[in-house]
């Protein structure tokens, strides 16, 4: 029986076929890798603050960054933000997030419309009653004029109530064959597809359209995107909205998106974590990268394997060393990506005792097995599967850090060659 399910745990499924969309030079969909994106939480009118946060998100690895454009002051700031980023040598595409008055802001601020790489609009609040289609059309026409792609982003917290009511009434008239939850899911899907069809009728090409259908519950997200993927070939932006804070948000997002990504669904992702007060906004980028990396879809950063610790490892040396190396890697990666091509594929092991330490270290490119409680105070070092040294004394951690740095230089630097392991 178990063998029937082995395919699920194999290498990730082939990607779902979707239309590729060029977002400021970054391809979303088609045969392109899954793209990581994020969103600022600064007041966009605060140019200094927004530039700083966009730069931090981009340095952390965000390939697209979305900013709020909610009033005249923020729209006027967008071209200045774009210019400032370019002066810093940062060409990260900016996505404008529009709600309620996007049509007016784009019309009144042509420099903003030009500076953005993509517009995000919500069919649930782009306009109401008889103004809805008109204002939606105005934004699409602006996208056509400035040759910009659009994400049509449905969110069940701001779902088109007229569409939902219509579907509820039809379901009731049919004897209520669907539950209210199923009708809600269908309304989300139809809102995205109807809006995409309308955008194409106005003249926006399919390779300028990305769809999203965000909800806040794991099973709802899986069901909605699985069905949406069956009904269209649009590029899909994947994300669990209002995911929550800390471990809850990380676990919920990873559970939902991990299942969908394994099925080949999703062309770009955002992990929508609620930041802790004064917390680091780049955390959502890190989680997105780690999700894609552990699933085997992409490589962003060297992996540090470290044991969880047990009664054999009462010393905290291996924990501190693993944390130090991981922090060093994240800090240096923006430079290393340019200086050491391929370094993101590096694997490092920092183990705490003799049980799994030597074996895990042999499997890594470079690894250390630190002495556990009661063990001889020595630390064997393994490089490319072979033992090359044994470190002793109070400076084991510092010595190993230097060995990691030397390994990176020797293997990935200019004129690099594989380091030879001692017999």
From TrEMBL:
Residues 304-405 form the IspG C-terminal domain. InterPro entries: Dihydropteroate_synth-like_sf (IPR011005), IspG_bac (IPR016425), IspG_bac-typ (IPR004588), IspG_C (IPR058579), IspG_TIM (IPR058578), NO2/SO3_Rdtase_4Fe4S_sf (IPR045854). This is 4-hydroxy-3-methylbut-2-en-1-yl diphosphate synthase (flavodoxin). Pfam families: GcpE (PF04551), GcpE_C (PF26540). Residues 21-288 form the IspG TIM-barrel domain. Keywords: 4Fe-4S, Iron, Iron-sulfur, Isoprene biosynthesis, Metal-binding, Oxidoreductase. It is an enzyme of class 1 (oxidoreductase). It catalyses: (2E)-4-hydroxy-3-methylbut-2-enyl diphosphate + oxidized [flavodoxin] + H2O + 2 H(+) = 2-C-methyl-D-erythritol 2,4-cyclic diphosphate + reduced [flavodoxin]. Converts 2C-methyl-D-erythritol 2,4-cyclodiphosphate (ME-2,4cPP) into 1-hydroxy-2-methyl-2-(E)-butenyl 4-diphosphate. The lineage of its organism: Bacteria, Pseudomonadati, Pseudomonadota, Alphaproteobacteria, Hyphomicrobiales. Pathway: Isoprenoid biosynthesis; isopentenyl diphosphate biosynthesis via DXP pathway; isopentenyl diphosphate from 1-deoxy-D-xylulose 5-phosphate: step 5/6. Its cofactor is [4Fe-4S] cluster.
